[in-house]
Amino acid sequence: MPTVAGALILVSFLVARVLGSDGISDLFMVSAAVVAGVPIVVTATRALMVKDLSIDLLVSVAATGAVMIGEYWEAAAVTVLFAVGHALEARTMSRTRSALAELVAVAPDVAVVLREGEQVEVPAGAVVTGETVLVKNGAKVPVDGEVIAGTGALDEASTTGESIPAEKTTGDQVYAGTVSRGGFLQVRATGIGADTTLARIIHRVEEAQDAKARTQAFIDRFSTWYTPGIMVLALVVGLTTGDVVLALTLLVIGCPGALVVSIPVAVVAGIGRAAKDGILIKGEEFLESSARVDAVAVDKTGTLTEGRPHLTDVVVLDPDLDRAQVLTWAAAAEAGSEHPLARPILDAAAAEGLVTPGLPESTEPVPGKGITATAGGYRLLIGNAALLDQLGVADTVGAARVADELAAAGRTPMIVAVDQRVAGVVAVADTVRDDAAEAVRRLHAAGVTRVVMLTGDAPLVAEAIGRVSGVDEVRAGLLPEDKLDAVRELQQEGFTVAMVGDGVNDAPALATADIGVAMGAAGSAVAVETADIALMGDDLLKLPEAIGLAKRTATVMRQNITVALATVTLLLAGVFAGGVTMAIGMLVHEASVLVVIANAMRLLRRRQGTTAGPSTATTEPTAPAELVTR
């Protein structure tokens, strides 16, 4: 429509100049106003039917009045410029939603499944849970599932934002929409159709980009009162001065078009940019809250650390034993334990080819201290010094001192005793993420003033992690309810708090924080559905990136509102001062819309230094796993 109307305006000028016929020229000019103005009038009428005095109504009344008083050029200029502005706004919004369009585009259409020993190609939605899906080189993964055979490399950018292909082998998880860059995988389908990670992300991005929060709600309320206010002002000025042209000009100049688009275009652009980078922000409300975050509470295990503890030390204290024997007894005691720290000890014993007595005859956990077990006729203890005291085992070889030294070095120690005699001390540690210190530095650079680590570890162990990662404060020995209290304390001190955790034992704290952040949420339905922000990849640097993007988006919102209000104010002043006509005012007004749109679209560009990758963070010794709290 704007193109046709623009052509009619050009014809009108040509007719007036070449033929000198004002009547025919005016006919073309009115036709241009009608062609461009009819959709505007229709929109205004529909809004009136639901008792909404929209901006389109201002333009409709102004253009109609201009035609009635013979100001055909003004009528055509106003409607065409407004229509062009609408078209540009729609095109821009479409472009800013490109992240969602790209997600939809990667959704696979077909799958190759094994049925009765035959390879059968079926629609992706027809795959049955539990079926074996074949993923060949170059193919899209059609389902969420677990690799049951084969090896390959998958491009997971559509879910995690990580461009480097991830190696996959038996037991690994794969996600729908990822693309094979080599190899051949057999995958057991665990999530299909709407139950895939990709489908959940698409659904959440749709909701997020359409949601409204406080700033947008304010703009909506402002427009609701502003439109009738301008109409009343124009009516009063027209009746007072008798200048109909001035009244109609006020109607046109008063259109706050830039104000109306200032927030939505910034929100959609910000959320779209985040989605491309593997950051799922659940809506404008959380985007705004994230922009105010000035304190971050982080869980330790799996967040600041890798979450994969391994054996680091075997200290022999009984002169009649050697390293292998101490580790063998430790593994024998842990063989019947469900505790996370049992696994690294058992794995280390197996890797060294040590033979344990098999499953213990009995295992009894001692909460907060360790376990006792009976294996091969021996009574075994493994735990802390308090366990020795409780069971009357004399520490004559300085086991408690050794344990304290290991804890101070960032390891989690466990004293091993056999038949009331201390054998030695074993220690495990969880490696601090290479990017932990860099992530904390970037959080500070993004305006976060306090980064607090919340952990159930003992103080010595927790302090070691704190020194390596560079957090501002360490709170150790916390239960889940203690983490909740810690978040509340920060809020009571006036901080806007983001809590980062795994969404399970940290659930109370995540729910209480102003922003709950789930890390490594790809494939986790609970995290995608419940977290305010989900970092789809297991990448800690995405956290400062998310907060930084939220703050930039909030800045763009404020800039856009300032531009929009300043433009309207200056134009209205220009109308009363003289010199600003209806056409000139509308041209300036539409220029302000373009400025607002262009400003928001800056958010679509990836900023230098925001991509996650290998960091030169810390090369200090590994830090500890969780303290034994059995």
Automatic annotation (TrEMBL):
It comes from Georgenia halotolerans. SUPFAM superfamilies: Calcium ATPase, transduction domain A, Calcium ATPase, transmembrane domain M, HAD-like. It comes from the Bacteria. The chain crosses the membrane at residues 30-49, 222-239, 245-272, 561-580. This is Cation-translocating P-type ATPase. It holds the Pfam family Hydrolase. It is a multi-pass membrane protein. Residues 107-206 form the P-type ATPase A domain. It is found in: Cell membrane. Keywords: ATP-binding, Cell membrane, Membrane, Metal-binding, Nucleotide-binding, Translocase, Transmembrane, Transmembrane helix. InterPro entries: ATPase_P-typ_cyto_dom_N, ATPase_P-typ_P_site, ATPase_P-typ_TM_dom_sf, ATPase_P-typ_transduc_dom_A_sf, ATPase_P-type_domA, Cation_Transport_ATPase_IB, HAD-like_sf, HAD_sf. PANTHER family: CADMIUM/ZINC-TRANSPORTING ATPASE HMA2-RELATED (PTHR48085), CADMIUM_ZINC-TRANSPORTING ATPASE HMA4-RELATED (PTHR48085:SF5). The keyword Cell wall biogenesis/degradation does not apply. Belongs to the cation transport ATPase (P-type) (TC 3.A.3) family. Type IB subfamily. Residues 609-630 are annotated as: Disordered. The keyword Ribonucleoprotein does not apply. Signal peptide: none annotated. Its main location: membrane.
